[in-house]
Amino acid sequence: MAGVSTVSNLASAIGVRTEEAAIVAELKAGSEQAFEWLIAQYNQPVYSLVYRMLDDPSDAADTTQEVFIKVFRGIKRFHADSSLKTWIYRIALHEASNRRRWWFRHKVQETSIEPPDSDDTQAGAIKNMLVDDSKSPLENVYDEELRACVEQELKCLAEPYRTTVILRDIEELSYEQIADVMDTSLGTVKSRLVRGRDALRRRLERHMPAFGLSCAVRQRKRRKDGTVGAQEVEVMP
User: Which CATH number is correct for 136-237, 3.40.50.2000, 1.10.260.40, 3.40.50.720, 1.10.10.10?
Assistant: First the structure.
């Protein structure tokens, strides 16, 4: 049975690579349908990743748009050295980092002349186009208050530990994909993940009495029959 499972997994992996190669070929040929598929497939994950880096919906929407512009312009230089998802995430992290640097240099010195309730139709249009308002997997799993607590404490982690935790425990990238996205070694990824999770766990422990939960390392508790209970969710992945 183990051999059958291995063959099945291999066949599945080959199928995914074949499908991705076909999509990349369509993108390189300038297919509008392929690019629409790409945005539909990766819009929400990219926005979520960028938003967690920037913590501003408008900046995240603008940066997400820039990511897809860079993808569109750079797809012909994509040679499948990594997966399409990894390549897009690498661009997203780069653009988010550039946006943060710009913000610290310029935006903090700006004084807005617009009234607080000003309606920025362009930013609104971009957000409506690129942001999916449906609940994320994290929102479906965690109680809203607990989720907000986790998100807030996650923002307080130092880089590069925060990004590593986000990519692994929220975006669910493999260690190899994270190493590729962050351009570092597998050992460094694992070390940063351990330190990042530990730092987040220590920050969350201060809130645990309020929620009546224990702060554990795994994302889900499994019942004896192997199923996962919605009310058995633990704080950390």
Answer: 1.10.10.10
First to last CA, the chain: 30
- CB atoms near residue 150 (< 10 Å): 20
- Rounded to the nearest 10 degrees, the angle between the axes of helix 2-28 and helix 32-54 is 100
Q: Which residues of the chain have pLDDT under 70?
A: 1-16, 103-143, 208-237
Tens of pLDDT, residue by residue over 17-76, are 778 889 999 999 988 889 989 999 999 999 999 999 888 888 899 899 999 989 999 999
Collapsing DSSP to helix, strand or coil, 227 comes out as: coil
What CATH number was assigned to the domain covering residues 33-107+126-134?
1.10.1740.10
pLDDT at 219: 39
- From the CA atom positions of the chain, what is the Rg in Å? 20
Nearest to 170 by CA among 131, 139, 201: 139
